[in-house]
Amino acid sequence: MASTRARLLSGAAAGAASAGIVAGAVMETGLPVPFTQWVFIAACLSLPALGLLIARRRPDNVYGWLLLATAGCLGLGASGYGLLLRGGPGPAAAAGVLMLSFFPLFYGLSWVFIPLLFPDGRLPSRRWRAGARIAAAVIAVYWLGILLSPDEIYAPFFSGGNPFGLGGTAGLVAGAAGGLGQLATFLAALAVLASLVLRCLRSPAAERRPLRWMIAGTVANLGGYVLTGLFAEKGQEAAGWFGALTIMAAMPAVIAAAVFRHNLLDVRVGIRGSRLFLVFDLRPTVDELLTEIGPGLEDADPVEQLERLAGAVRAGLEVRWAAVALADGTRVVAGEEDGEAVLTVPAGLGHIACGPKTAGPVTAEDRRLLGALAVPVGLAIRSAALAARLVDAEEAGRRRIERDIHDGAQQQLVALIAGLELARATGGEPELLALLREQARQALADLRELAAGIHPSALSQGGLAEAVEERCSRLPVATTVTAAPELRARRFPDQVEGAMYFTVSEAVANALKHADATRIEVRLAHAAGRLQAVVADDGRGFDPAVTGRRGLGPLADRLRALGGSLEVSSAPGEGTRVRAWVPVPVPVPVSRSVPEAGRGPRPGPPSAEDGGRGDGDDHGVAVVQRRGPGDEAGQLLPVQAAGLGEAARGPAGQPGQGEGRG
């Protein structure tokens, strides 16, 4: 019912204003109406048309009704002007004078309140309440002064005198009030213009763009009035006509430009059947918001990113406040949070909450826009958190390497130096020299182990498959490694191979340390643009929701940074399965005849004929050797061949033997 009343009232107001504008323009020139007058009529009609559209779609928005009221004053003034030109003394003259006096109200609303209340019909701040009251009083004085002025003001129209004019001293006071009111109204307009400039300088970028349009419109409107006053009375009709056209067209033009160009009041143009329709709301598009805030997010720290995202959401949806919150409790609010959130959507690792809209209720379109905005906002939040965790993981890795060197190899070298000093002092007894040689070998082995933890040489020289084989060959439990054939002949980017290698290494280390596994299976594959690794064990398993990922968190972040993922599935008594994958580009072929620079030749799977080393061309699936818990160092145990049958066995069907790889 309220919507129907608003539609009827807005239609009646716009129709009356339009009729007054057309009637006044036609009476001014007579028939036929010149083309220039039709141009002037079209410019004047844009104001009631724009007010009608806003008031019908958003009856709760004061701004549409303000435009209709201004258009009504224009229609009354135009009709009064026509009556004074075409009518004579008597009732027509009285009606003409009364209606013409509404021009001061038109100017006051156009100069002061249309720019001041732009775009939602609300004052910029509470401090403007007193200023708005003073401006309204000044405009009222301007109107009364013109209405009650003595007869001389209306002499160009008729000789019968102003029926509302005051005589004597009262008439002089009325004339002075009209002139002073006009000047004060113009000064109030300049004050509003200055406030618009300050608002534009202090506002976020998304709010500055429509304010620039209103500043331009206000300047054009005031400039047109000055132009008309300077040239119209000097007989320069063209300049006077252009000035009047600027007065009538400037404000509707800039409001329409702000509405359509920047989606103020959410105006979008579309075709429904044979009718052109406009839809109103108050927000920019997601693309515009992201384009605005995107460059600033790149160089901002996580807290600054949250602040900018919250500000963008508040400006985009025109809400009183907006908050971006993370799951860890971090919360940043743009605006003054003065109540419960009326709209909340999840966003990655947190959520976005919005307060009431500055104008109108929350609509389904608001929810759709916020839901669409939550996707990139969530990605930005997740990326910021991921980057922070990667930095922490790298720092923890450096501290671990420093600790391992200090507690391990450094202490061994110190003991070795002390032993050498003792050997020199005692003449170098054979038993002591043998002990020192064994200590040197152990220190070398520990350094190699430490270097392998940083970046194994097998990964640089032979690729992912061989590095995983070499790592698993030193495990004290039965381990099977299955690798797809193309992993033997191709290489992948270093960061991809490194991430997958250390993920596999951490997974098998967890199987040994935590799961009490007796058998581990590793599978490597490349399919559908993904490089995938699966590590499964037969250990006691665990509940991932309770225990966590057992040190795999930094590696999961590393995989996500490459666009991949890590999944851990386990249950008490059922073993553990770790699956990791990353997207990969077209891999680079590896030349067999000429080793790649810095990589060296890559041995193939072991066989009986080559002493367990292999030539790399006979088997498509990788098979590795492993050492049992009771074996002596350097002795190789039988090879487990996944999917090869007897391919890894010697001619007699026995496991191949050979020298271990240290």
From TrEMBL:
The keyword Phosphoprotein applies. Residues 653-662 have a biased composition (Gly residues). InterPro entries: HATPase_C_sf, HATPase_dom, Sensor_HK_TwoCompSys, Sig_transdc_His_kin_sub3_dim/P. Residues 589-600 have a biased composition (Low complexity). Residues 610-620 have a biased composition (Basic and acidic residues). It is an enzyme of class 2 (transferase). The keyword Mitochondrion does not apply. Pfam families: HATPase_c, HisKA_3. It comes from the Bacteria. It catalyses: ATP + protein L-histidine = ADP + protein N-phospho-L-histidine. Keywords: ATP-binding, Kinase, Membrane, Nucleotide-binding, Phosphoprotein, Transferase, Transmembrane, Transmembrane helix, Two-component regulatory system. GO terms for cellular component: membrane. Residues 495-586 form the Histidine kinase/HSP90-like ATPase domain. One of its GO terms (molecular function) is phosphorelay sensor kinase activity. Residues 588-662 are annotated as: Disordered. The chain crosses the membrane at residues 34-55, 62-84, 96-118, 130-150, 170-198, 210-232, 238-260. Its EC number is 2.7.13.3. This is histidine kinase. The lineage of its organism: Bacteria, Bacillati, Actinomycetota, Actinomycetes, Streptosporangiales.
